[in-house]
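Reading group handout, session on sequence-to-structure problems. Before we discuss, look at one worked example. The prompt was deliberately terse, the way you'd type it at a terminal:

> structure Contactin associated protein family member 5

The input record follows.
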Amino acid sequence: SAELLKLSSLMETTFINLSTLFTSINFSCSSFETHMFTGGWSPLESNEQQWLQVDLGDRVEIVAVATQGRYGSSDWVTGYALMFSDTGRNWKQYRQDDAVWVFTGNSNADSVVHHKLLHSMKARFLRFIPLKWNVGGRIGLRVEVFGCSYKSDIADFDGRSSLLYRFNQKLMSTFKDVVSLKFKSMQGDGVLFHGEGQRGDYITLELQKGKLSLHLNLGDSNLHFSNSHTSVTLGSLLDDQHWHSVLIERFNKQVNFTVDKHTQHFRTKGDSDHLDIDYELSFGGIPVPGKPGTFQRKNFHGCVENLYYNGVNIIDLAKRRKPQIYTVGNVTFSCSEPQIVPITFVSASRSYLLLPGTAQIDGLSVSFQFRTWNKDGLLLFTELSENSGHLLVYLHGGRLMLLIQKETENPVEISEGTNLHDGLWHSVNINARRHRITLTLDSDAATASHATTVSRIYSGNSYYFGGCPDNFTDSQCLNPITAFQGCMRLIFIDNQPKDLILVQQGSLGNFSDLHIDLCGIKDRCLPDYCEHGGKCSQSWSTFYCDCNNTGYVGATCHNSVYEQSCEAYRHQGRTSGFFYIDSDGSGPLGPLRVFCNITEDKIWTEVQHNSTGLTRVQGAGPEKPYTMSLNYSSSAEQLEAVINSAEYCEQEAAYYCRKSRLLNTPNGVPFAWWVGRANEKHLYWGGSLPGIQQCACGLEESCLDMRYFCNCDADREEWTNDTGLLAFKDHLPVTQIVITDTNRSNSEAAWKIGPLRCHGDRQFWNAASFNTEVSADISFFFKTTALSGVFLENLGIKDFIRIEISSPKEITFSIEVGNGPTEATVQSPTALNDNQWHYVRAERNLKQTSLQVDNLPKKVLEAPAEGHFRLQLNSQLFVGGTASRQKGFLGCIRSLHLNGQKLDLEERAKMTPGVKPGCPGHCSSYGNLCHNGGKCVEKYNGYFCDCTNSAYEGPFCKEEVSALFEAGTSVTYTFQEPYPVTKNASTSSSAIYVDAVVAKENIALSFLTAHTPSLLLYINTYFHEYLAVILSKNGSLQVRYKLSKDGLLIFTIDSGNFANRELHRVKINREGRELVIQVDQVLKLKHNFSEIDFKAIKSLTLGKVTDSLSLDPEVSKANAYGFTGCLSSVQYNHISPLKAALRHPSVAPVTVQGSLTESSCASMMEADVNTATTTYSSSDPFGKTDEREPLTNAVRSDSAVIGGVIAVVIFIIFCIIAIMSRFLYQHKQAHRNSQKKEKEYPENLESSFKADIDLQNTVSECKREYFI
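And the output record:
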């Protein structure tokens, strides 16, 4: 099925020189050419098992190929692959972009298509493998190969030999080393070279399980505290009997280690920079001194080519028998190639190899080697003779299993090994004699497994390796598990090797979906495409990434699970707290833990460091400075990304001093300074400007001594300070502070650097081209009213990437990476051109192409296992249109990120016709985040919630405003009169209020109490009408309307006792004549008034009404004690009286009488006795205190501390005496009041006052009550 063309016999007779066709091609190396022959090659059968092999006579460097079709015919190849070999055995596929490369062939019989190879091949044999051909014809091919001669020095090590390179002096000490070589081997272990010194220095390059390890130690390993050993492992599957290149470059501690095309850069451990080697370097093994041929570790078995150490050609010296080289054992200078033929099982379902055996032999003997990445797969099946059953050998969960099944007997099962899907070669040997069967793994007879069968075992005549044919009737082959995908070699049956080349030629056995004479295994975890620390694992056809505990998700751990800024968390409706932010998204920087302080006007990002308190400094001078480095538990790159993406950043710098100078102004050398970004020293202090050696007081001309520009520079005996904000972003964060003037008598200082604080995300509202990447992700927000348009496009010669809104309900992500265009489309159930912000994220990696729109289901398309890995894009990135200026986008785009990098759309928009920076209309998308009547207000780069007309506050108007009322507490809000009215207004003059009829009442409040009766809310008018909300004596809720026409209307909610120390929410809504009352979000009552004329409101009171002369008896009873408990979030139409009393008491028309303490009603339900009335006033998570004055207790002497303790003890004694005196006085006063009240309200004495006297006294005495 294949033909071999040897150029030495065919060039003169069957090839013609077509080099004139390529005169315009400039190849870097063209000292030889093969030639195309006149007619061309066409096999008898056109299928994928055909190939054309070229023998170039010797190893050469191949740089280009060219093809034509068969002369004067319709036979030509449209696509082909290349393989190369040194020996005509054990072929290797030509790869490009880490995939088997498919070359574009011809489109007719006569035109020539040439390809310059991206990576040259060094080989003697070259194969052309037709993959596709003209549909109307057959395979037809003429070829030409371009290249140049290749010379090399080769040494062959037989596993018992080595070359010793001896130095001219006893010790070779080097600061720089360069070692380069190429090697090939079938063994997975062996030392390639080694050198060591008596001080403990060493360098070793060693094959370990098919990977290359470099061990390096610079320094004295004899010292117990030394930790200078460095080991780096690179490469995989290096025992494939193909050439692999190695380059080691060391300069001092910096090392570049390259295996094939993969390089790892690292620094050696320890303090030493030089490598000290004694006497010699050993290549091929580590001989034991005095015992030639004896090695400490397994030595190398294979060939080494072009071995250079610091410019010295080691093999050339050995060939010329120079005295510097001492040869141990038998080293030859040509590469002996083992004639081993590997095979590859390609298909997961159809691959198999059938080999014949000798039937009815008493016993069984089969052996082979395999390597794979799959945990499961059938290795061998055979039908035993004389009805002795079936024998199966297979992998299950990475273990080797042997099973003998016979219908009349129990199955016999043996298992061996673990993790045999590690990609390494493993040998299997099965031997059976009579009733005993032995399974040996990796030639380890000591661990071989044995079993005994009832019946004798007789060999069969057919052995199926890797799988079974589809036709069970003919084969009787059973496969209880999946087919094997991997490589096999060295197959022996009945102790006879099987020639797999005969299988390939069709004269031995049978097969399906095999690659014969090559092992196509590939390590898909090299290079490791799992990002951000994801752990790579693989099967034969793909790889997997374990993203647990990385902070990233996705097929390659590419996407961060965290938002990029506090601004983004705010737009999820989140409130202040600790969050992880990932400033560069899918970029290389990891997530950073910050505190997001989400306030009404700004969103602050705060990053704390390791020295938060005020730190005292003494005894520091210029010769012995005080130095403190600040650790932010993050990298400098992470902090820089946070700062760069913010609109504003600051750090407070405070220096408290007593006879300790700071900047030594006006002209002296500073005594203190701080270090910022890039390790740069700065000589200005907080509140000043960069480059100006001053403090804040110097800039403001407010220093204590105007001769100096810092308060501390006055060098006074008393404490003072210089405090201000460092706000120049390019210098932040502060990483170190240095102080040098606290070593004089009575000299003392204390310093504090605040957390890094930033606000504003320049990119989140920010309404180029791709590099060649294996992963690409794009995310942005858009809003539009257009029917369609292209968001962005980037083109290459063939590759492209495009995202567009293809219809009002469809977003399409199109990408071409060499395997044909791929389209991922997400369909939305609702229109996306609704002029609201929508989120789009598109990603392409080695495993998947995905598209996410808002929270709709993600569209994921699996990528092919083989093909282009990298996007080849070389044009500009077009945002809002295409390269052809067609299908432009009409609308807004913001927060555009490419691979985690933010694009500044606003700056580009300023220079682009037809594009405007910024985009209005954010409230259309985010207005629903403003709650409880808060109003969404547009900003240039976002929005904020205006809570002016809401009873709540906070960034989303969701934080309650509540207060603790005591007996007698009154909050009265006075409404502005609609017209000027005299105090002696008569009934006739009341006509001026006719236009002031209130059309509606929207009342809402929350309360918590254990006291009845209580007056919660009272509204009165200039017409002596009122609306009252009271708790009756039995705990029921009453809403009382007193109207001039309808008289008194009472609405009672008696569904329970509302004075039960639980928080209740009441809503009273009147729209015209319709009244609706809700309690705890449950509709309790509806009523229609016959006529409503509630008008001219005078005032609204919470708690006790002080002007009680006009109250009716029931309201007056409730008003006896007003309200004792907690009121929260009180709203009357657009008025918030409680909020006005707490937040704007000097501006709002509100009067407070009695004690009113801000509290939290919700927390009081859960709080203990000691925290029921705690006032929450600080929102700083780091416990900031007032730093306007020095914390003198932190910096004063020990004697001051002792004096403070004495003062506290005296203060406590006085407090105890005062409390006892007040208790005796109030006990007496309470007795008098009880007598007085008994005369006024005798009916309430037992039932009401006594029942709640404990609660009332508790609140009024110490403001602490345990509400449950």
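Points for discussion. First: The chain is about 10% helix and 40% strand. Second: The chain has a mean pLDDT of 81.
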